[in-house]
Structures are given as C-alpha cells and as structure tokens.
Amino acid sequence: MARTWLISAAIFGFLSVVFGAFGAHGLKNVLDQYGHIVYDKAVRYQMFHTLALFALGLLQMQLKNVSFKIAGWAFIAGIILFSGSLYALALSGIKILGILTPFGGVSFTIGWIAMGYTVYKGLKE
C-alpha cells in the first residue's frame, strides 16, 4: 500500500499546485472575495492532506506489520469531498454544494485518528 499512498500524494500534490496557480491567476478577476477565500481553503487543505498521504507512504515502508488503509482512504475521501466541494462551491456559487464539505472534514478527522492509532499499534508490536 505504500505505493498507493505515494502515488496518490504525487497526483494530489500536482493537482494542488495546478489548482492553486489557476486560482491565483486564472480566477483572479472571476471570483469575488468570498469565492477566493473558499477556493484558497480548498487548495490549502488538499495540500495538507497530500502531505499526510506522503507520510503514510513513508510510514508504511517502515511499519510493515500494520496497514494504513483506513487512514489513507479517509484522507483521499476527505480531499475529494472537502476540497472538491469547496472548489465546486467557489466556481459555481451554488451554496448547496457546501453540504458535502463537513463529510470531507469528518473523513480527514477519521484519517488522522486512524493514522495515530496505526502508528501507535505499529510501534508497540
């Protein structure tokens, strides 16, 4: 699974940079102030959790006796739901899309808890 987390991190990291640049330059005169705040938050949280996926890949290579599947898939779901819904909200202005954002936040929380528990379990054994 280390490969899965590292490749996912590479893809989401690439997309974070592309989306960030697009937001800063391509959407400079398109989004209002609220749209920029929402869009920037999406980029920021995507990058934070991309780094978490990268860390999972490195941890998985070191702690071969445990699985980071729950944490990894939770981070991926969180990026898609949290950041994805914020990108869609900022670009479309359709407020109802914000209903998905908390589900992404919960996924991030599950990911961090699962990551901590798995590291604890892996270092304990």
Textual characterization of the structure:
- The chain is mainly alpha-helical.
- The chain has one domain (2-124).
- Helices cover 82% and strands 0% of the residues.
- It contains four helices and no strands.
- It has helices spanning 2-26, 33-62, 69-92, 101-124.
- Helix 2 packs antiparallel against helix 3.
- The two termini are 19 Å apart.
Task: Evaluate the radius of gyration.
Answer: 16 Å
Given the helix and strand composition, which structural class is it? mainly alpha
**Count of discrete structural domains:** 1
How much of the sequence lies in strands comes to under 5%
Contiguous helical run count: 4
Low-confidence stretches: none
How far from one another are the termini? 19 Å
Q: Average pLDDT across residues? A: 96
The largest pleated sheet is described as:
none
- How much helical structure, as a percent, in the residues? over 70%
The total of beta strands comes to 0
N to C succession of SSEs = HHHH
Quick synopsis:
This protein has 125 residues and is mainly alpha-helical. Helices cover 82% and strands 0% of the residues. The protein is elongated.
Keywords for this entry:
single chain; 125 residues; mainly alpha; 4 helices
Blueprint (SSEs and pairs):
Blueprint: H1 2-26, H2 33-62, H3 69-92, H4 101-124
Helix pairs in contact: 1-2, 2-3, 3-4
